[in-house]
């Protein structure tokens, strides 16, 4: 092979290799597995029951865990299946703080399976969350540290005591945690203006530090999602039939 031809061959090979690397990186990113923050989601069981029109058979009367979700990522490793044996020592806390409100035992582990395979496999990009034991343990730790049930009680925000202004609840929580959470509500029924509080979310950096959940765009979304006046339900009415 002539020197000039050889140089051209090497240059072409290098360009091809560079192109393949770029393509591989683009393919990975297109999988939507990159994320910037974690969202610790609490939900109010009575609202969950109302949303799905299910009596749920005596849902807990305290805030429970919905999940720990990386933003902008889901199902990052479909081959990493849930294994209940890995969290056996966590089961007492899991059953109490992270119950499956909709599907009672013996199917409660299906809820945890869903949360791990959809969200946990993405959170596992962090060393501190790179196993099922670490993921569920950290979520339980966040839940206990945030202590939402006790804090709301101390703030006088209780179910069926009165109606609340969304800004009053957010401002009260900011005064305690120093960051702004995100509130989610059910839409009003028919001509009613009052919405029902359903979820409260707290956000964390990849360093697991609390941060604001909201930015100007999200605030505009919240104004559409939650009205200024909302209700905090205590009991769920069992549907006839």
UniProtKB/TrEMBL annotation:
InterPro entries: Ribonuclease_T2_eukaryotic, RNase_T2-like, RNase_T2-like_sf, RNase_T2_His_AS_1, RNase_T2_His_AS_2. The active site is at 66, 115, 119. Residues 1-24 form the signal peptide. GO terms for molecular function: hydrolase activity; ribonuclease T2 activity; RNA binding; RNA endonuclease activity. GO terms for cellular component: endoplasmic reticulum lumen; extracellular region; extracellular space; lysosomal lumen. The gene is RNASET2. Ribonuclease that plays an essential role in innate immune response by recognizing and degrading RNAs from microbial pathogens that are subsequently sensed by TLR8. Cleaves preferentially single-stranded RNA molecules between purine and uridine residues, which critically contributes to the supply of catabolic uridine and the generation of purine-2',3'-cyclophosphate-terminated oligoribonucleotides. In turn, RNase T2 degradation products promote the RNA-dependent activation of TLR8. Keywords: Disulfide bond, Endonuclease, Endoplasmic reticulum, Glycoprotein, Hydrolase, Lyase, Lysosome, Nuclease, Secreted, Signal. It is found in: Endoplasmic reticulum lumen; Lysosome lumen; Secreted. This is Ribonuclease T2. PROSITE patterns: RNASE_T2_1 (PS00530), RNASE_T2_2 (PS00531). CDD domains: RNase_T2_euk. Gene3D superfamilies: Ribonuclease T2-like. Belongs to the RNase T2 family. It holds the Pfam family Ribonuclease_T2. It catalyses: a guanylyl-uridine-RNA = a 3'-end 2',3'-cyclophospho-GMP-RNA + a 5'-end dephospho-uridine-RNA; an adenylyl-uridine-RNA = a 3'-end 2',3'-cyclophospho-AMP-RNA + a 5'-end dephospho-uridine-RNA.
